[in-house]
Amino acid sequence: MLDMLPRLSLYFKNPCAFRHFILSLLPPQMPALVCSEAFSTFLHKHCPVVAERFSPTPWCWGGRLQTLVCALIKSRPPVAYRNELIRTVDGGQISLDWVDNQASHGYPESSTRPTVLILPGLTGNSQQPYVLHAINQATRHGYSMVLLNYLARKRSESGMVAGITISVPWDAQKSSDSMEEPLNWLLFNKYLTSGLCRAVTRHRKILEKVVDVDYVLKARTIREFDERFTSLLFGYKSCTDYYRDASPDKKLPRTAVPILCLNAADDPFSPQTAFPVNIVQNLPNVALLLTAHGGHIAFLQGLFPRGESYMERLFGQFVQAVFEYPKDIEKACSIKEEQTGE
């Protein structure tokens, strides 16, 4: 095997491609699970995927490639939504896409059917492949469908019984630094910034009353967009203040429900230096599952990774465990009855 390496290297003009090829020949690595012993026991019993060795798609090893390929080739299962538009007291509106799952055998009564709330990421929507696959997982178990920040702000009053996060950028400042690296800017930052600017353009007549739209549309990075638009719109003195307040890591200690967090060390959106390992180690209700590979909201496996991924299987198992063993997870996470509103 080793004597083949010099010859194989001739086929890889890019040293990074050669390195990823060599890594693909190595045995898959076991994810690291950071949490209390009791929460770990619960997860190993009811979410066996946490004990699996994660092996990325052999030809799609690196985090950037995982992220791009997932966006390009991931299948989109058909989902029929029922839209509900809620008008708020301040004149805004919230659009909800519901999957009622009336065909549920496990929960035929809609009044007792558990509901899974899915919140897409930046520029995301209900048509994203990872959202559609998550819905498939939940409907399979009979649930209906319709934040971390929300969980923290409302604590147990949120009505949530648990939460799961995928590829969260824990520190907004460090995330921006990573996304402004030349290759990450070219592959991701530039595209996302353009999408944000297009959204501003669609609502220009309203937004130009509160911000300099022409200046906003000249933004070349997400940070510049946040400096010129987001931070101003929400009343922050600076983008730094906004990023400090928007970073989820410091909110974890204020959560009052079990939360499982999945991150990959090679996620270009969320550098591993920002992972809240030290914070999670002292929290009984939060578990941090870390893989060496997986990219951003990707975690592709198999030669033809169009179907369910590692993260979607984890989502399905955790959601089922939460709804079917509520007392067990409350005990494992030291959740008291008054915290859950029972």
Determine the N-to-C terminus distance: 61 Å
For the record, what CATH class of the largest domain applies?
A: Alpha Beta
**Using DSSP, what is the number of strands?**
8
The total of helices stands at: 16
Largest sheet: 4 strands, mixed
Write the CATH fold name of the largest domain. Answer: Rossmann fold
- CATH H-level name of the largest domain... which superfamily? Alpha/Beta hydrolase fold, catalytic domain
So, CATH architecture of the largest domain?
3-Layer(aba) Sandwich
Uncertain stretches of 5 or more adjacent residues = 1-13, 21-25
Assign a percent range to the helix content. 40-55%
Please explain how this structure is put together.
- Strands 1-8-7-6 form a 4-stranded mixed beta sheet, covered by helices on one side.
- The chain has 2 domains: 70-171 and 247-340, Alpha/Beta hydrolase fold, catalytic domain (Rossmann fold, 3-Layer(aba) Sandwich); 174-245, no CATH class.
- Mean pLDDT is 86; it is low at 1-13 and 21-25.
- 42% of the residues lie in helices and 10% in strands.
- The chain starts with a helix and ends with a helix.
- The chain is of the alpha/beta class.
- Helix 5 (129-140) packs parallel to helix 14 and helix 11 (222-233) packs across helix 12.
- The chain is built from 16 helices and 8 strands.
